[in-house]
Design a protein that fits this description.
7-stranded parallel β-sheet; binds adenosine-5'-triphosphate; 43% helix; binds magnesium ion; alpha/beta
């Protein structure tokens, strides 16, 4: 399964989602490959820091430019590898190439109006690739979260039942091997169920 993680807005949790999903995939018995398509290189930096401190990350991270991303789409990996493509926030060409290479797109967003506005513009440009919106960095049990979910459903957009909460230990996870997955394993199960139809 190839999953692009995309949102044209910055700082919504794309890189965090890629790495946590990679860990979740490994926990489910798969291998995991993170394609770092963001010139900022955050996913690569995350993995490099793990290598320098915690030891050996059990996911692989590969930095890819536009050309390499397009090549990857032509020769995908085997079924035992789950691939997560970390997209940059503001490069439509790269986002398009990632979306084209992917079976499905996760669009992470915080449940605030200003963040949600960018979900609409992101999903308008996904072509035929299906997407699922992931509410993340959310305070559970709030009206804001209920309203965000309702707005997405009203717009006919698929949304994960699982919500990733706002957690200090997720914020502090950069450069470490995530242990507690805060629902990302449920997100993976939902994603696989959705793709199985
Ligand atoms: N569920 C969460 N709870 C708390 N902090 C979070 C959560 N998810 C992400 N963060 C934090 O939010 C910030 C932005 O996350 P991240 O870097 O994953 O976003 P991004 O969309 O990849 O950003 P960019 O567009 O710059 O690539 C980081 O400091 C990260 O640790
Ligand atoms: Mg990022």
């Amino acid at each position: 399964m190839i999953t692009a993680v995309a949102n044209t807005k910055g700082g919504v949790g794309k890189t965090t989602t890629c790495i946590f999903m990679a860990r979740a995939a490994i926990d489910s018995g798969q291998q995991a490959l993170v394609l770092d398509a963001d010139p900022q290189g955050s996913a690569s930096a995350w993995t490099d820091i793990v290598r320098g401190t915690d030891g050996q990350p059990d996911w692989e991270t590969r930095s890819v430019n536009l050309h390499q991303l397009r090549q990857f789409a032509k020769s995908p990996t085997g079924d035992d590898v789950d691939v997560f493509i970390d997209c940059p926030p503001g490069n439509p060409e790269i986002i398009n190439a990632a979306v084209k290479a992917a079976d499905v797109v996760i669009v992470p967003t915080q449940p605030t109006t200003i963040d949600m506005d960018r979900v609409w513009t992101t999903v308008e440009n996904l072509g035929d690739t299906p997407c699922v919106v992931l509410l993340t960095g959310a305070r559970l049990g709030t009206k804001l979260l209920d309203e965000a979910r309702e707005a997405l459903r009203d717009a006919g957009l698929p949304v994960f039942t699982t919500v990733v909460p706002l957690r200090e230990d997720i914020r502090a996870a950069f450069g470490t091997v995530p242990t507690k997955l805060h629902g990302y394993n449920d997100v993976l199960n939902e994603l696989k169920d959705a793709l199985r139809g």
